[in-house]
Amino acid sequence: MILPFEPYNPQWKMQFSAIEDELKSVLKTVEAQIDHIGSTSVEGLSAKPIIDILVGLENEADLDKIPVLLQGKNYVYYEKYNEDMPYRRFFVALTGAPEQLGVPAYIGQQDEISERMHDYSLRIAHIHAIPKQSEHWLRHIAFRDYLRTHPQVKNEYQVLKEQLVQREWEDGNDYNAGKDAFLKEYERKAVEWYINRTSAKKNG
């Protein structure tokens, strides 16, 4: 499959804000910080036009409340990924109700992911719920801020993405695997930079 790939669009900020408002309303019974992450959150960076949103939970025990709170909305819950990533709950926000689009609202551990779910035109956002004390929350936030403040690294990432998107991929997970070496190198640098910067702010 050829993945959608677009130049940076200022409307991505507005799309995030609209989903953020909805999530704040739906998740008001849990304490959470909602952040725009991924390539669509970095001005000037091309990306798949799907908004990545990080729901940082103050209380890890709230992790399994999120699927219940999002139930009945325009979200597909991928419980399938929980075994490999027990620290995260993952959802896809759709352009409409799952039943109207002909897709399931829930994908369990043993369920196959249908071809229909690989249609990126149905997707608005990817929602990642992760405890804030997790190293995985930290790396997402640190990498976003690192790209925003390091133009040379952002440009390197842009070139890599432009190369990868020209290839045929079975699905988005395979495309992500193509970025893995770059991400591991710069996520490590970003986390170190972020921790040092945060420490300096506290001490300053």
Automatic annotation (TrEMBL):
Keywords: Transferase. Coiled coil: none annotated. GO terms for molecular function: transferase activity. InterPro entries: GrpB/CoaE, NT_sf. SUPFAM superfamilies: Nucleotidyltransferase. Pfam families: GrpB. The keyword Magnesium does not apply. This is GrpB-like predicted nucleotidyltransferase (UPF0157 family). The lineage of its organism: Bacteria, Pseudomonadati, Bacteroidota, Flavobacteriia, Flavobacteriales.
